[in-house]
Structures are given as structure tokens and as C-alpha cells.
Design a protein that fits this description.
- The protein is of the alpha+beta class.
- It has one domain (6-86).
- It contains three helices and five strands; from the N terminus they run H-E-E-H-E-E-E-H.
- It has a three-stranded antiparallel β-sheet, with no helix packed on it. The chain has a two-stranded antiparallel ribbon with strand order 1-5.
- The chain starts with 5 loop residues before the first helix and ends with a helix.
């Protein structure tokens, strides 16, 4: 897995503690949730329309760019423990 450079860019506002069990349903990598701060908006201009931004930690994944998050989890995210229970 190539690490998504967004992790380093927005590290100060990455919500890793509360969301550390979110995974991408496409590739199985962790998903990070970020506060849509100025550093993030510089890289993801559409993040200015959101409070939160989610992106797959795998730079090679189709969800590495990410998208805005409102209240419901995104369709390509799941909880790691839900995957283990289903599998």
C-alpha cells in the first residue's frame, strides 16, 4: 500500500482516534477523517463545502482523493469489526 500524502498534509486535524476502525470496502485499507481546514482545502478545494473530509489511506485506491462527510458514513466505508463479523 502506498500511503496517501493527505495523511501528512492534514495530520494535525486528522481524526484518527475516533475513526480508527473505519476501512475502505474497496481495498480494505483504513479510512481517515479530517477536519476541512485551510491546508486540506488547498489540496481538495471542494472540501470548503464540508466540515469533514474522508479519504482512503491507500494512495492507490479509487477513494484516495476522498469526499465530504455529513452525518452518515460514506457508501465505501465500513467498520473493521463489521467486516470480520460478516466474513
Amino acid at each position: 500500500m502506498n500511503i496517501n500524502p493527505l495523511i501528512e498534509l492534514a495530520r494535525p486535524d486528522r481524526r484518527a482516534v475516533c475513526c480508527n476502525d473505519d476501512i475502505c470496502t474497496v481495498c480494505g485499507s483504513p479510512v481517515s477523517t479530517y477536519n476541512a481546514n485551510a491546508d486540506l482545502v488547498d489540496q481538495r478545494p471542494e472540501a470548503s463545502n464540508w466540515d469533514w473530509w474522508c479519504a482512503c489511506d491507500n494512495a492507490d485506491c479509487v477513494h484516495a482523493y476522498g469526499e465530504g462527510l455529513f452525518q452518515e458514513p460514506l457508501g465505501w466505508m465500513d467498520k473493521a469489526d463489521a467486516q470480520h463479523k460478516a466474513g
